[in-house]
Specification:
mainly alpha; Proton glutamate symport protein; 22 helices; 78% helix
Length: 430
């Protein structure tokens, strides 16, 4: 669907979400029967990720001309993402300490079944469980043994590194490099065109995804008891995500990015709803880039660099969630957390979330790292698994929103020296 009909797409997405929730909630068997449609939509999105990331990053880096400028945009991007992630964790910690959702009296009601504990143990096998192991794993993953194997496994971080180097190299070999760059520009345009086509079926795919997931939970009848048993914890996470998503990031967007928050949020409505339905920043990546370029009018050069990198290392919502979950588990087990332990949780959640994307079972791995950093019981993760699928969608939406805000901020900072670009960004309402 072309960006010229955003209102029809927005209405369609909203209808898809509402109908999917109602169908999966009231008729779970029907929701399960149509879940495959959502899976097809999700697979189509994933199929676009690798060629879109590779082509957009190569074209974006090549468009810099002088590759030495990469240092400026790279440093600003990483600093912004680390700052917003740290602020998100801080908000989560303040709320979980103030609200105190976990109490030892609830532990018996929240204990997992033996099957859940066994499944958790199997999933954690051979995974890094310390921050040092995580850093080693990240550094090792930057250079894959086989580039095509990395593509097949959708390992985005090593692909980004390769694309940065390849795109920079193309700018140094003259006319031959220009020819190759033009080829990748054509590939990038083709990927964007496919994204437009995929938007025609997005409302159906999103509705089917939500219907299928609610169907797996047993509909409203099966999901509400789960939600009620962990209600205070869920509300704490949602409140923290809301403060970060509706206060912290909008303030950065308005004062650092110089954009109208309502207009910018409207431009990002499609990827945000897709993020909620798919619970995947990577799957949402093609839509995020398309919306930023076509709707929000962020420069393609900035979007091509910032957004793929953000989808890999910028996990505001995930870091916040892990900090809250760690404190909740401590409270549930009756373990006192002092100032030193709380600071360790803040630092560990921030750093591990930044590096989580290159690791399989990223959310689970980083949660274990946070717990082990302050000697909390790892099996406590099983206390929150029952509602994790729902919170995962919420935190992914915040992750994607953080990437979008980061693109606006970096775009303005990079264009401050360009008078015409600066005027367009700061004075033209979206």
């Amino acid at each position: 669907m072309k960006a010229s009909s955003p209102h029809h797409l927005l209405i369609g997405m909203l209808l898809g979400i509402v109908l999917g929730i109602l169908l999966g909630g009231f008729a779970p068997s029907v929701g399960l029967s149509i879940a495959f449609i959502g899976d097809l939509f999700l697979q189509a999105l994933f199929a676009l990720v690798v060629p879109l990331v590779m082509s957009s990053m190569i074209v974006g880096i090549a468009s810099l001309g002088d590759v030495r400028k990469l240092g400026s945009i790279g440093l600003r991007t990483v600093l912004f993402f680390m700052t917003t992630t740290g602020l998100a964790v801080l908000v989560g910690l303040i709320l979980v300490i103030a609200i105190h959702p976990g109490t030892p009296t609830n532990q018996a009601n929240l204990d997992s079944s033996p099957a859940q504990a066994s499944s958790l143990s199997e999933r954690m096998e051979d995974k890094p469980t310390t921050l040092g192991d995580l850093f080693k794993s990240i550094l090792t993953s930057l250079v894959p043994k086989n580039l095509f194997a990395a593509m097949a496994k959708t390992q985005i971080l090593p692909l980004i590194v390769f694309a940065l180097i390849f795109g920079g190299a193309l700018t140094t070999i003259g006319e031959k490099g220009v020819l190759v760059i033009r080829i990748f520009e054509g590939i990038n345009e083709a990927m964007i065109a496919i994204v437009h086509l995929l938007m025609w079926v997005a409302p159906v795919g999103i509705g089917a995804l939500l219907a299928g997931r609610l169907g797996e939970a047993g509909g409203f009848i099966g999901f509400w008891p789960q939600l009620a048993s962990l209600g205070t914890y869920v509300c704490t996470v949602l409140l923290a995500l809301a403060i970060h998503g509706f206060v912290t990031l909008p303030l950065a967007l308005r004062f650092l990015g110089q954009h109208s928050v309502p207009a910018y949020a409207k431009a990002m409505s499609t990827p945000l709803m897709t993020a909620f339905s798919t619970s995947s920043s990577s799957a949402t990546l093609p839509l995020t880039m398309e919306s930023l370029i076509e709707e929000a009018k962020i420069s393609r050069r900035v979007v091509s660099f910032v957004v793929p990198l953000g989808a890999t290392i910028n996990m505001n919502g995930t870091a916040l969630y892990e900090a809250v979950a760690a404190m909740f588990i401590a409270q549930t087990y009756g373990i006192e957390m002092g100032l030193a332990e709380t600071i360790i949780v803040l630092l560990t959640a921030t750093l591990s979330a930044i590096g989580a994307a290159g690791i399989p079972e990223a959310g689970l791995v980083t949660m274990v790292i946070v717990l082990k950093a302050v000697d909390l019981p790892v099996e406590g993760i099983s206390l929150i698994l029952v509602v994790d699928w729902f919170l995962d969608r919420c935190r992914t939406s915040v992750n994607v929103w953080g990437d979008a805000v980061g693109a606006a901020v970096i775009d303005r900072l990079e264009n401050q020296g360009n008078t015409s670009a600066s005027i367009l960004t700061t004075n033209t309402p979206l």
